[in-house]
Design a protein that fits this description.
The complex is a heterodimer of chains A (about 170) and B (about 675). Chain A is of the alpha+beta class and about 170 residues long. In chain A, about 50% of the residues lie in helices and about 10% in strands. Chain A has a four-stranded mixed β-sheet, covered by helices on one side. The longest helix of chain A is centred in the C-terminal third of the chain and has 24 residues. In chain B, strands 2-1-5-3-4 form a five-stranded mixed β-sheet, covered by helices on one side. Chain B has 21 helices and 23 strands. Chain B has four domains: about 80 residues, Ubiquitin-like (UB roll) (Roll); about 120 residues, Alpha-Beta Plaits, CATH 3.30.70.20; about 250 residues, Fe-only Hydrogenase (Larger Subunit), Chain L, domain 3 (3-Layer(aba) Sandwich), CATH 3.40.950.10; about 90 residues, Glutaredoxin, CATH 3.40.30. The chains are: A alpha+beta (about 170), B alpha/beta (about 675).
């Protein structure tokens, strides 16, 4: 019933915003907080309920970089490739993580939906270069080895957690 | 008017009258300032920056979005401006596909015209054109994003004028494109195929889809007999391609050209427009007498019909069941002409020449095929016919006029004015007034329905009853009228709608134009044509009477129904598989599916979903049901709709829903 619960939440969000087209951006933000991305059918539904065209909603959702239309993993890794980090070989870190997680160009989310790996242009933490952010947490002065370790840690924790829930 | 308010444009004093912006004043001063994104019929967007001018004390400003103030001193051709314009056009060209000679828009492309005007002979920037996929899914249009200059004209005409909004800007920066929602194909979204976007697109990014090659193939095939029908609006516009004035009537030249190209017979869609008048008027009289499905909506515009089907399912039954003149012609041609000409139905090829891109879609509607054979095989736009004439090498203006073939080439003026907004209403009035009073009227003109406003209303009394009519062009205007009816502010008996501003004479298949004053000239041409003809009322067309006598039987007979009428359906705006939002974890369980399409949403599907969920949890049914929401069962006029197991419940209430669940859930333990 997880999907249904989320959909009810969407209905709530739309109603809280009085079904006003001018509230599109806050609505999309709230919906993304719920799903961690903006599913196509939900965007179509939002367009319907606000009385605007799906094309316009799609346009807004693709214009702002804070929105994403692809499902993201539980851990959202953003490796900085701003000037400072780039100079300090941040792409090596990106590549190491990609390799560790078996990702390829064009496929930046793992099958199990645990990780999504992306680059960003400057996290504003240039003093810590090279840097990355996992969900909200910043990791600085990385090496490829250190980055791999961090990933392995998370995987280990997740596995234990999984065991816990199965055991319970 | 205060005579002292004027501005100076290139050292000439120009009085400010009603102009909203500098651009209008500059054009009034006789300077054709280049623009891509300014159109008087659309909102001001100010994106192309081609209209930059120098205003003393302000520097460079976009003329389209700068309001005039008295004593402004404006220069339109300083060295700086000239250089900037060139750079803008060069940059556009550098981002543009380089296939100009093979482009459909080649002859009318405004980007090419501008490059020529500004004397651009080389592009100083590296070619950055992208290689994006071309969308040829639509039967009416081709969308080539590689030729798009991002002026937004199509986006605005689609959302502002037509209130459809099928295409919009997406992504940002260098990735910006104009596309349908989620990058879907145009034929999978709510586009009504009116083509107004292609009409206004300055380049070849949106163009009517061509069927010229298919038609040539049929003409060259010795087994086929290829016949043509020509829509009313074509005859007052095609001449523009050959340098004639808009509105100039060229019926005779068209007939001659079509025969020279190789068509076996040439007929007139105005003939079946006359037939439409008879059927549609009688349908109207019947509805008035039975007080059902009033107002009656005209049904000859396929873009309007699709608009109703997808946005106003509750009004589907108000549409006249009459097929459009194009489709009546197709059905009759296959049935009757095949016998008369002694050819097999599959060997007769019906080609329509239409001002319209939506007619291409209409011809492909499954309702208009029998045994896999379409009633209308190909639809050429006025532009496409122009191209065939050019390819053939005919000197159109010098062709000796020829006449149409009989019987389907004989029409009255009523069938001719079908091509402009107000024409269908007037033609129907010419019939209904005589039919209801039983008296012949000397005068045939109803000037009250004529005019340029997108919404016109007339009231009149006839045979002791008051009547109210609305004549509408442009789908945004149609939406306004429908909303008025829904809110109780509008009451009508008959509503004529044409999707294109001005009616079919302003169709997207017509010769390309940007100045909408052309509508008046073409319309005038059709009314003149009406006056020149011998007969003006459809009921006076002897070949129509003959058709009823010898073939159809009475008006509204079973034969007439089979060939001349149709039915409509509610349709999803966005096709694709249904979108399921939720399943319980159990594979087995009663499927409960609540429709969340627009129609149902408005009618309260949200409340029903809540009620259903409540009921489920109160009765501990969670593990025995699968609840999902999907978009549109295409029964929107009878919404809200839910499905419980195999049962589809229309006009559902919470009570009806729970009752059904109670019954059906028993088998799932
Ligand atoms: S054809 Fe008409 S409805 Fe379709 S995208 Fe163009 S303007 Fe919009
Ligand atoms: S108004 Fe005429 S030209 Fe325009 S879409 Fe309708 S039928 Fe076609
Ligand atoms: S450039 Fe990487 S943190 Fe600023």
């Amino acid at each position: 019933m997880e999907k249904l619960r989320k959909f009810e939440r969407v209905l709530e969000i739309v109603d809280q915003n009085n079904r006003q087209a001018s509230r599109l951006i806050p609505i999309l933000q709230a919906v993304q907080a719920e799903y961690r991305y903006l599913p196509e059918e939900i965007l179509t539904f939002i367009a319907t309920s606000l009385g605007i065209s799906p094309a316009r909603v799609f346009g807004v959702a693709t214009f702002y970089s804070l929105f994403t239309l692809k499902p993201k993993g539980r851990y959202h890794i953003r490796v900085c490739n701003g000037t400072a980090c780039h100079v300090k070989r941040s792409m090596d870190i990106y590549n190491a993580i990609h390799k560790k997680l078996n990702l390829q160009p064009g496929k930046d989310t793992t099958e199990d939906m645990l990780f999504t790996v992306e680059t960003v242009n400057c996290l504003g933490a240039c003093g810590l270069a090279p840097a990355m952010v996992i969900n909200e947490e910043v990791y600085g002065q990385l090496t490829p080895e250190r980055a791999t370790e961090i990933i392995e840690d998370i995987i280990r924790k997740e596995e234990n957690h999984e065991l816990d829930t199965h055991g319970a | 008017m205060n005579e002292d308010t004027f501005i100076t444009i290139d050292n000439k004093d120009i009085p400010i009258e009603r102009e909203q912006n500098l651009l209008e004043l500059i054009r009034k001063a006789g300077v054709d300032l280049p623009t891509f994104c300014y159109h008087s019929e659309l909102s001001v967007y100010g994106a192309c920056r081609l209209c930059m001018v120098d205003v003393e004390g302000m520097g460079l400003v976009p003329a389209c979005s700068t309001p005039p103030s008295p004593n402004m001193k404006v220069k339109t051709n300083t060295e700086e401006i000239r250089k900037m314009r060139k750079i803008i056009v060069e940059l556009l060209l550098a981002n543009h596909s380089q296939n100009c000679p093979t482009c459909q828009k080649s002859a009318t492309c405004q980007l090419q015209a501008l490059a020529r005007r500004l004397g651009i002979t080389k592009i100083r920037f590296k070619n950055q054109s992208r290689d994006l996929p071309i969308d040829e899914s639509s039967p009416s249009l081709v969308r080539d994003p590689n030729k798009c200059v991002l002026c937004g004209d199509c986006v605005r005409i689609c959302s502002e004028v037509q209130t459809v909004g099928a295409i919009d800007f997406a992504y940002r920066g260098a990735q910006t494109v104009v596309i349908p929602s989620f990058g879907k194909d145009l034929d999978k979204v709510e586009c009504v195929n009116c083509g107004q976007c292609a009409r206004i697109c300055p380049t070849g990014a949106l163009t009517p889809k061509s069927e010229v090659d298919d038609v040539w193939r049929a003409i060259h095939n010795p087994d086929k007999v290829v016949i043509a029908q020509i829509a009313p609006a074509v005859r007052v516009a095609i001449g523009e391609i050959f340098g004639l004035e808009p509105g100039k009537i060229t019926t005779g030249q068209i007939a001659a050209a079509l025969r020279a190209i190789g068509f076996s017979k040439v007929f007139d869609t105005s003939f079946t427009a006359d037939l439409t008048v008879i059927e549609e008027s009688n349908e109207f009289i019947r509805r008035i007498q039975n007080k059902e499905n009033i107002p009656q909506f005209t049904s000859c515009c396929p873009a309007w019909v699709k608009f109703i089907e997808q946005y106003y399912p509750e009004f589907v039954h108000n549409l006249s069941t009459c097929r459009s003149p194009q489709q009546m012609f197709g059905a009759l041609a296959k049935e009757i002409l095949s016998v008369q000409l002694g050819v097999k139905i599959e060997d007769i090829v019906v080609v329509s020449i239409m001002p319209c891109t939506a007619k291409k879609f209409e011809a492909r509607r499954p309702e208009f095929s029998r045994d896999g054979i379409r009633d209308v095989d190909y639809v050429l736009t006025t532009q496409e016919l122009g191209r065939m004439i050019e390819e053939t090498g005919l000197h159109f203006n010098e062709l000796g006029p020829e006449s149409f073939n009989l019987p389907f080439g004989f029409k009255t003026g009523a069938g001719v004015i079908f091509g402009n907004s107000g024409g269908v209403s007037e033609a129907v009035l010419r019939y209904v007034t005589e039919k209801l009073t039983g008296e012949r009227r000397e005068n045939y003109e109803f000037k009250g329905v004529r005019g340029d406003n997108g919404i016109r209303e007339i009231k009149f009394s006839l045979a002791g009853r008051e009547f109210s009519m609305a004549i509408v062009s442009g789908l945004g205007n149609a939406r306004k009228v429908l909303e008025d009816i829904k809110s109780g502010n509008g009451q009508y008996d008959f509503i004529e709608v044409m999707a294109c501003p001005g009616g079919c004479i302003g169709g997207a298949g017509q010769p390309v134009y940007t100045d909408i004053s052309i509508h008046q000239k073409r319309t005038k041409g059709l009314y003149e044509n009406d006056r020149m003809l011998e007969l003006h009322k459809s009921q006076d067309n002897p070949y129509i009477s003959e058709l009823y006598n010898s073939f159809l039987g009475d008006v509204g007979s079973p034969k007439a129904h089979e060939l001349l009428h149709t039915h409509y359906k509610s349709r999803k705006r966005i096709t694709d598989e249904d979108m399921y939002l939720s399943y319980s974890d159990k594979a087995e369980g009663l499927e409960i599916n609540v429709c969340f399409g627009t129609g149902c949403f408005i009618k309260g599907s949200q409340k029903i979903l809540r009620g259903v969920l409540d009921y489920i949890s109160r009765n501990g049914l969670k593990n025995r049901v699968n609840v999902s929401a999907s978009f549109c069962f295409e029964a929107c006029d009878r919404g809200p709709v839910i499905r419980v197991g195999d049962r589809v419940i229309e006009q559902c209430t919470i009570e009806k829903a729970t009752e059904a669940i109670e019954k059906e859930v028993e088998v799932y333990v």
